[in-house]
Amino acid sequence: MKSQTLRGWYAVHRWTSLACTANLLLLCITGLILIFHHEIDHLLEQEPAVVKTTSEAPRPSLQQLADAALAAHPGTAPKSITMFEDDGVPMVGVRVGAPGVASLREGTSVFMDTTNGAIRALFTGDTFTGFILKLHVNLFLGFPGQLFIGAVGLVFFLSMLSGIVLYGPFMRKLAFGLVRFGRQTRIVQADLHNLTGIVVMVWALVVGLTGSFLSFSPLIIGLWQKTELSELIRNLPAAPPKNLVPLDKARRVAELTVPGKDLAYIFYPGSEYATQRHYMVVLRGHTEIEKRVFNIVVVDAETGALAAQRSMPWYMQVLLLSGPFHFGDYGGLPLKILWALLTILTTAATVTGLVIWSRRSKTAMRQIDATATNNTLKEQA
């Protein structure tokens, strides 16, 4: 590689690394805490107490649960159904709000144990990890802060990519992973920086990109709403239903259409993720990764007939899969520990890189010229 090209890549690596250093350190520290957010919430007792039930009464139907939520909030209309687990307890969240309002953000949720229909209050107070999550996601700056964090992720990706390009020429004569202890301090620091950087290379690229995808999620979801969802709505009848078939019927139709999947969400007609006439039933797989792969079944809310079936577009699938890959919460405690170790190594690479930047700009340029000259001579030989 020519000296001029190496200098260009070095400039890219140097300035992109410098541009994201402060934010990257903050993201590493907050991300390290968030990897163990379940364990921290449990330790600080910032989670609801698990209520075990021994009742042998038959389980309430999904429609009965929705009716109970509406009874608890008279004058509201149902907006969506969310299925999830809380400490191993199967739960349903029924979102209700003002009639005629499509937005799901304007309303309230009622959480119930699906085994007996008991209303449970989830912990809604401010938690330590909740505070850290807001700092990690948007620096308490809302949507603009979220976009800024996404841009930091892209700059970090470019920093890692340029570091990979530089690693080969700079470490060509040395054994992989060699740290030359006993040499000058700047040489030891450079070797440690190169070692930690190359060790976390693939992981850092994945975490940087998935973090950016998550930060740009409002834009990505908006794109899906304006393209795929809008097209689906245009091609289906728009007349609002006179009566709604029970939720359980819509669920059965969806599960027969996409067998082997579990119910994740149901969006009511008129909500922002459905048409004026149809239930939008969202199904997912069973494993931690498959739970992020969604299929959409559109069911006529008046007749219960199947209206359409769709898979999420690739960019939505990437967004949905970015969460577990970014936080490492899909493989239990061993994977969390691995994610934590890689985060610590990334922090170390960031710190050593900052120290090197502050001390060795002229030396680096001389090393670039010498490396390029040696490579040219070898190619000519």
Structure description:
The chain is an alpha+beta fold and 381 residues long. The protein is built from twelve helices and seven strands. It has a seven-stranded antiparallel β-sheet with strand order 3-2-1-4-5-6-7, covered by helices on one side. α1 packs across α5 and α6 runs antiparallel to α11. The radius of gyration is 26 Å and the shape is elongated.
Q: Radius of gyration in whole Å, from Cα?
A: 26 Å
| Neighbour order of strands in the largest sheet | 3-2-1-4-5-6-7
Distance between the termini: 15 Å
Fraction of residues in β-strands: 5-15%
Low-confidence stretches: none
Question: What structural class should be given to the helix and strand makeup?
Answer: alpha+beta
Q: What is the 3D form? A: elongated
Count of helical stretches: 12
**How many β strands by DSSP?**
7
Helix content: 55-70%
How would you name the oligomeric state of the polypeptide chains in this document?
single chain
Largest sheet: 7 strands, antiparallel
Mean pLDDT across every amino acid position = 84
N to C succession of SSEs: HHHEEEHHHHHHEEEEHHH
Properties at a glance:
381 residues; alpha+beta; seven-stranded antiparallel β-sheet; 12 helices; 13% strand; elongated
